Every structure is written in structure tokens, then in C-alpha cells.
Amino acid sequence: MDLITISTIGGKDEILKETKLSSSTRRHALLGTFLKPLKLERFPRPFVIGLTGGIASGKTSAAKFLAQNNCEVIDCDKLAHELYRKGTAMASKIAETFGANVMLDGVVDRKALGRIVFADKEKLKMLNKIVWPSLRAEVRERIAQSEAEYVVVDAEILLEAGWDKDDTVHQVWSCIVPQCVAKERIVERDHISLEEVSFCNF
To answer: Is residue 33 part of a domain?
Structure first.
């Protein structure tokens, strides 16, 4: 791992408008920059970018921009929904683990499943152990079939699932905004109050 020296003097945060004697501002300023030149020739094609970010961070807009600039985008939210459909190995494993009540006409009832897993952290971990490997396998299959020079894997759970460490992606791009900006975006997008936004996970 490379060591990067960061000065703590004279750091001004142009986003949060703070000036303080701290390395935090300097480190924040380095986000989105290359600490050393990227040697693309070291990587196979397609070159795979992992795109992640929290709620209202601008990840969707970034994915659209990349798609408009000759990148193939794999939307992991949509892909996961496909894997919940009737007849998939993942759907069968979910039914086996959580019971027939989470199935509706052979398809995973995501609302029913959500009521179970979001009320119990251990059950959420059980679900993730089913979903993440299945999703990863499907993502890798699509990457292998791609004829694009650059593929973008749009996945909120990318870091939690460890895809940055298992060679699923070659590089990670993370969309980051101040929490106050994210809240403003959610209020405008979803037409809800700031009080309701406070229940969102950031």
C-alpha cells in the first residue's frame, strides 16, 4: 500500500465552507483524484468501474452520464429484481430459507421479505449471503459477455459485498455529497418533509 503525506496546514473546505487545522479537509480534497497515474494497459478489457454511493448522492446521474459516453452500465438494482423472479436458483433459496410466505405466485414478494429482514439484522445477513453471491455471479457473467471497452457496475452494496477486493471491479468510483445536500435532494425528489427525511439511512 502506498503512503501519501497530507499537510494539516491551511486547509479550506470549499464544499462544507470550513477552515480548520486538520488533515480531514486535505483528505476530502483528494477524493475523486488520482494519487498516481492509472496504467490502463495493466488491466484486461473491458475495464470495470464499480460505481457506488449513498441515497441521493448523484449515483444515478453519474451512471447516466457514463452510459451516454460509451460505457456499458450494469444496474445491480434491476439485476437483483430479475433474480427474484420465478424459477431462479436465488428465489428458490430465499423460499427455502425464509418460508413460503415470502413467495407470491412463485416470485419473491419483496415487501413481505422486507418486513422480515429489516426487523432482524441477523436475518438481513442471511439474505445478503444469498443475494450477494448470486448477484456477483450474474454481474461477472455480463462483464464476460460485454463487448464494451468500459463497463460500469452500478451497485450501492459494492463495498459491503467486497467486490472491490475480489477483482469483480478494477476501480471504485464513489459519489459523495454533504448530508444536507442529500436531504435537500430527497425532499425535492420525493416531495416529503425534512422530518420524514430524517428516517432515511445515510
So the answer is: no
